[in-house]
Amino acid sequence: MIWTLALVTIGVVLFFLLSWALTTVIMIAVVLIALFVRGLLDEKKNRAAFRRELTELYGKLPMGYGKKKRIVPGGGRRMDRRQDGGAWMAESRFAVDEITWDELDMDAVFHRINYTFSQAGEEYLYGALHWLAEDTREAEKWEYAVSYFDSHHQERVAVMELMAEIGKGSELSFSECLDRLRRSGKQRIARELAADALYLAAAFLALFHAGAGFCLLALIMIFQIITYFRARSGILPAVRSVAGMLRMTEGAGRLCRDLDRSVREDVERQFSVSLEDCVRKVRALKRGSFWVRQCGRTGSSPVSVCADYIRMLLHPDIIQFMLLQNKIAALEPALQSLYAFTGFLDSAVSIAMYRASLKRYCIPVLEGGRELVCGAAPGRAQEPVKSHGISAGLCMTEGYHPLLEEAVANSIAISPEKGVLLTGSNASGKSTFLKTVAVNLLLAQTIHTALAVRFTTPFCHVYTAMRSNDDIRKGMSSYMAEILSLKRILDAGKEAEKIPVFCFVDEVLRGTNTAERIAASTQILRSLRPPGVHCFAATHDRELTKLLAEEYDNYHFTEEIREGEITFPYRLLAGEADTSNAIRLLGVVGYDREIVERAAAQAAYFLKEGVWR
What b-and-e string marks burial along 53-77, b requiring 16 or more CB atoms within 10 Å of the CB? Predict the structure, then answer.
């Protein structure tokens, strides 16, 4: 009887223990499933919200534009401008030099144009803005894809979503990543595999001596966590870049499969490759790369947390990265082609979005190119662009600067035999006009877009000499920096046999005395003349308008003074300026009246007598 009661009691206790354990397991499973389903629903909701945001982005500024610090692609460093897809195979093409790029603030222009969502697209677009087309085929390479994405809204949004999945954020550019992989020596993969094998040894030891086995297991885990962060820190930039490269290849495969056939064939013709062959070749990278592809992706879901612990304890991402290095080196040509393909499409979408956000733009007529059609923001009429018949000249109708929200449009048609000399008041718009023409010349020959009603120009090279400052680190004065900057333009003009040079000079030789400045400026500007060079120069030295009357057409900007206040209409006018406002501006901003009157009297005396007093 006692044994029976004991057995019944034990059975009841076991029943309740098993029921409790089973209930606990079921509850944990239900919670995990609920969290997993909640994560899927949240992801679906976020995707739908992002899709709506992309749809509403059409005709607006890029996401976050003007609200965050601008960062140049490539981890904040100046990118290798050869990123323009396939540009490493065309080193003879003209690239915008660093001086011109900086003086025109082209980083800011790039960020205004940049609607890309992938690193390949961002790098490609940044590189493309450096390389000027020199023939019609190269200039018009964007038109088919851009017009397709402009008119096919659902397809455009789908491509933007896919590019966002590929993502940005790598510390290394594509070319830097390949260079890093080429230079990296053999990694100690045997040590990583041996460390993982020790887990099996600890588990085997625990079968015979639990305490010793668990102690060994704890030591291995501590060792793996410490070495993980130490080893990962040295290769993390390369791992993240490879992860982005793998996501790019996966996205390129989906693009090849889902993209409109005519667009894909157009890109294949441009790069002379078979994209399907490239996708097939890199498919081998997908096997054994799961953990590397997840690098850079963060999340707070239980799955993400578990994955983080697996990485720290087993180092699967480091092991896969080591195994992938040789595979990537062998597939480099195919990877470059897919990079160019992905970057080109993302950039084409960006250009279509940029054009839609402009109040007006046109397809430029480039010397030797066929006439196309003006574009406009949604709802605006389109009109044909006609050549103005100016050989090796430039004609801009109502052109404006891309970084000015309320820009005043100006027009100019230059003679192929003469340059342009700008005079006028301080702050009246001379420098902005020079930059407007120069930036539009770059955009016309890079993304085949000009911010004007009409824009006709020959294919040309573009240089600037607009902002020369003292450089203490180089021990160089502003005058020395300026004459070296001008010298590079003179040297380029001597080689301008097949393609003209357009140069933009602001305040020639400002760093020296008046007599030598005027004399040297006259001779330098006479050297910067057609047929090889077409110069746009701004100056305060009105003597140059007379000295250079045969070589330069005169234009000017001026100001309006009403009731003691100076306003600027920013309108380009023919002829030379007949006013100056440097002294009057002193009074407008609040200088003592006595200072202003004495300065005005002294200047008037010099103009009348020719000597200072």
Answer: ebeebbeeebeeeeeeeeeebbeee
In terms of phi and psi (left: phi > 0; alpha: psi -120 to 50; beta: otherwise), the region of 553 is beta
DSSP 198-235: HHHHHHHHHHH-HHHHHHHHHHHHHHHHHHHHHHHHHH
Residue 423 near residue 539 (C-beta atoms within 8 A): yes
Q: What span, in angstroms and rounded, lies between the C-alpha atoms of 450 and 409?
A: 13
Counting every residue written for the chain, the total comes to 613
Amino acid letter for position 457: T
Largest Cα span, the chain: 137
| Averaged pLDDT, 514-538 | 86
Whether 241 contacts 171, CB under 8 Å: yes
How far is residue 385's CA from residue 449's CA, in Å, rounded to a whole number? 13
- Interval 392-435: pLDDT, tens: 579 999 999 999 988 899 999 988 889 999 998 778 889 999 99
- Eight-state DSSP code of residue 362: B
Please name the residue that has the structure tokens 């109502």.
398
Spatial separation of the C-alpha atoms in residues 341 and 279, rounded to whole Å: 11
Report yes or no: 150 and 355 within 8 Å, Cβ to Cβ. Answer: yes
The 3-class SS string of 430-478 reads: HHHHHHHHHHHHHHHHHCCCECCCEEEECCCEEEEECCCCCEHHHCECH
This prediction's pTM: 0.81
Cα 256–81–58 angle (5° rounding)?
55
For residues 339 and 207, give the distance between their C-alpha atoms in angstroms, rounded to a whole number: 52
Q: pLDDT tens, 578-604?
A: 666 666 666 666 677 777 777 777 777
- Of 457, 452, 484, 456, the C-alpha closest to 468 is 484
Phi, psi at 258, each rounded to 5°: -100, -20
DSSP structural state of residue 82: G
Rounded Cα distance between 305 and 285, Å, is 25
Check: CB of residue 535 under 8 Å from CB of residue 529.
yes
Taking the C-alpha atoms of residue 487 and residue 524, their distance in angstroms, rounded to an integer, is 9
H or E element in which residue 413 lies: strand 410-413
